[in-house]
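Morning run. Coffee first, then this:
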Amino acid sequence: MYRIAICDDEQPRRDDVRRMLLDLSVKSGIDFATEQFASGEALVSHYSNGGEPFHIWVLDIEMDGLTGIETARKLREMKRLSEQIIFLTSYAEYMLESFDVMTFQYLLKPVDPEVFAEKMLKLCRYFEEKEQEIIIVKSAEGELVLHHDDIIAIEAANSLTVKHKLKITTTRDVHDGRGLISSYADALKGGRFLQIHRSVLVNLAHVHKFAGNRVVMSNGMELPIGRSKLKEVKDACTRFMVMRIE
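And here it is:
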């Protein structure tokens, strides 16, 4: 079952989304549990008060009070990084700004139910695949099982006492690991991971923006890009973003 937050300041539009999800559930056999929010503030409050998280946020962009993008930004700042976003809007010019909060899909109103169903099924497949994407990391705590989606970056860490020490940053914790960056780069190649420096491997899904010869990740950390890798890294990020919205 997938939990869906429908956030729109117009009740008829919320009902439209709920109806499309009910129709899709009947056709696909996938269960959706929906909860409606009349404002971005209400959705942020849900998380602030310890409410159960959602898999997907369906957010209207043009709302009174917090806009959909402002709502998503506040939730990302609360480290809600695994939820996927579908933005609904009447104006295409918001598309570029929406990438700033790691958007899965951007749909123009009026939303075609078939297009909505197609994108929602794609998201369901994404969550199914994510559950299978794990890596076992050797650490000071023993062997850790980490989901690819939770890993932000793996860095070589300087240590006078530990050989091949690694710093593994996830959406929830930072772990001390053991091994070679090149070994993890090989194990994770062909997906969302890219070695941007001889001592840094990043998850492209968590790249927030570029700042000169550095990348800013979803948790705010800045990591260096190798001088010879700048164009490769920017091209890889662009391809990854395009693939996510197709």
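The mean pLDDT is 87. Good start to the day.
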